Amino acid sequence: MGDFNDILAASEKKGRVERAQWLIHGFKEAIFESGLTDLHMEGYNYTWFKSLGTNKAVEEKLDRAMANNDWFNMFTATTLECVTATASDHYPLKLECIPKLQFQRKKNQFRFENSWLVDPEFVLFVQQCWNNYNTESLVHKLDHYSADLSNWNRDHGQKTRREIDKVRRKLDTIRT
Questions:
Q1: Which of 1, 22, 34, 56 is the most exposed place for a label (fewest CB within 10 A)?
Q2: pLDDT at 142 > cutoff 80
Q3: Which numeric CATH code is attached to 4-98?
């Protein structure tokens, strides 16, 4: 980042006499000290106008969006656009930001299956698993327990699914 005199570009005003730089010096300094940077604006750069179509016309970038480095790291894909409006001399800004994707593996959500309750091996399996983690805290015990139940379902669930499919086929045969 440059010094705070580079923060607000000279091309932010078109028409009439430029204002003295000392008038905006404090604002520039506050922005610089805060670690803020302007977001790049796509398309039309001026957000305010007065007397358009006359020799006294002036356009200026009064409105802006700024962020610090942490924000830029979090939102890597952003667009800032000055949108045309007919009811005001200020053009609204439209900011679209897409958060940076976190490449963390999503933990599978545990789901209890009611069909497990009819499996004769299930009750014994539950008792053994629960007792295996007796010294763990409740939260860790539930984590281990849900993983064990998910593995049990993967191993035993295929048998149950095959039985369900077999019964469905019989029902389809009976219906036709």
A1: 22
A2: yes
A3: 3.60.10.10
